[in-house]
Amino acid sequence: MCTSLTYQTQDGDLFLARTMDYGEVLDGRPVFLPRQFEVDTIFCGQQASKYAILGAGSTEQGQVLIADGFNEHGLAVAELYFANEIVLEEKPLPNKINLAPHELITYLLGNFKTLAEIDQAIAGIALVVPNNGLPALPLHFILSDKTGQAAVIEARGGELCLIDNPVGVMTNTPNLDWHIRNLNNYLHIQPQAFSNKQFGNVTASPFSQGTGSQGLPGSYTPPDRFVRAAFGRQYLPTPTTLNEAVTTIFHILDMVAVPKGVNLTAEGVSDYTQYTGIMSMTERAYYMTTYENRTVYRMAMTDEMITNQKSVKWFDLPFEPHIVELD
Predict the structure, then answer these.
(1) What CATH number belongs to 3-187+222-314?
(2) CA dist list (Å): 301 to 64, 67, 168, 212, 276
(3) Are 163 and 151 in contact (CB under 8 A)?
(4) What does pLDDT average to over the chain?
(5) In 3D, which of 11, 19, 29, 43 has the Cα closest to residue 127?
(6) Model pLDDT, residue 135
(7) What is the pTM of this model?
(8) 312 partner at 20 to 30 Å CA-CA among 25, 36, 57, 235?
(9) Could you state, in order of their start, the residue ranges of all structural domains in the chain?
(10) Largest CA-CA distance found in the chain, in angstroms, rounded
(11) What angle do CA 303, 305, 310 make, to 5 degrees?
(12) pLDDT per residue over 33-71, tens digit each?
């Protein structure tokens, strides 16, 4: 599951945002990785990051795994499930940076400033099935930087490449090309109510507001969430301030958020939106809400943090509901 999108204010402030939808409880929380943070990759040994990273992550076998984040230069990446279509290398390839899918985000954020730099280097990276007992997570990735461009990395077989994403939205399987073509099925969707129509001597009128969105797909499947996110991204009023932008993005992602109990796996496990994260590349800040706690929390990557913080910093974000009682 998961839905992600890029966004821009009238003044050019840039964002990459996502819902984290999953069945297994991930305990994802904000984390800062300093410069020279060493990642112990499966095939390439220890890799030291050049750049500081702020995002949401968890730990697995003692390793910090980043699910979405940005670096000190405003490059942002998020991973989403790409089940049934991902094509990984079975063995490491010679003369390549060989990475397991879950290692790619930290590598990209730790070593590149822009999409242009990644575009030049991506053919030299291979995504490989892990051989250390960890699962081969079927992931694809949405990226953006301070140009506002959106791109996707999908391992479809053959060399990796950076795929332009002109819609600025991504969900899950099928691949991005399919989702973009599928928008052709929704040319009738619009925010304005439809006007009256004549049937013989009878004038048919809308019952109420909202007729323009009649036919907007409502399921939690990746294609339906893609269309709803693209619709919201296109038509919600463009904000002028950072705070307005954060509020607007949360409202767009509320259109695709999955509550517990309405989307069950074959084993009866609830796949739901565990957190929603917004990466502000312009101000180098991360905004987050959790399923239980709808309070918006902000974590900033400051110059002081980049220069002086030498160890991993986990932010103590409360998961319990925060309800404010007014007198």
Answers:
(1) 3.60.60.10
(2) 18, 17, 24, 42, 19
(3) yes
(4) 94
(5) 43
(6) 80
(7) 0.95
(8) 25
(9) 3-187+222-314
(10) 77
(11) 135
(12) 999 999 889 998 888 999 999 999 998 877 889 999 999
